[in-house]
Amino acid sequence: MSVDIIRVSDEYAVSAQISAADIEAIVASGAKSLLCSRPDGEANDQPTFAELEAVAREAGLEVAHVPVISGKVNEKNVDDFLAVVERLEKPIHAYCRTGTRSMTLWTLYQRRLGVPDEELLTRASACGYDLSEVLAAKQKTRAAAGPGHRRDHYDIVIVGAGAAGIAVASSLMARTQDLAIAIIDPAAVHYYQPGWTMVGAGVFTQQETVKTTASLIPRGVTWIQAAVGDLEPDENRVLLEDARPVYYDRLIVAPGIKLDWNGIEGLVDTLGDNGVTSNYRFDLAPYTWELVSQLRSGRAVFTQPPMPIKCAGAPQKAVYMSADHWKRSGSLGAIDIAFYNAGQVLFGVKEYVPALMAYMEGYGVDLNFGKRLVRIDGPGQTAWFETQNADGGIIEESTAFDMIHVVPPQTAPDFVRGSPLADEAGWIDVDQNTLQHRRYANVWGLGDAMNAPNAKTAAAARMQAPIVANNLLQDLGKARGVAHYNGYGSCPLTVERGKIVLAEFGYGGKLLPSFPRWLINGEKPSRLAWILKEKILPPVYWKAMLRGREWMVEPERSKPGANAA
Question: For the domain 261-411, what is the CATH superfamily, name and number?
Answer without folding.
Answer: FAD/NAD(P)-binding domain (3.50.50.60)
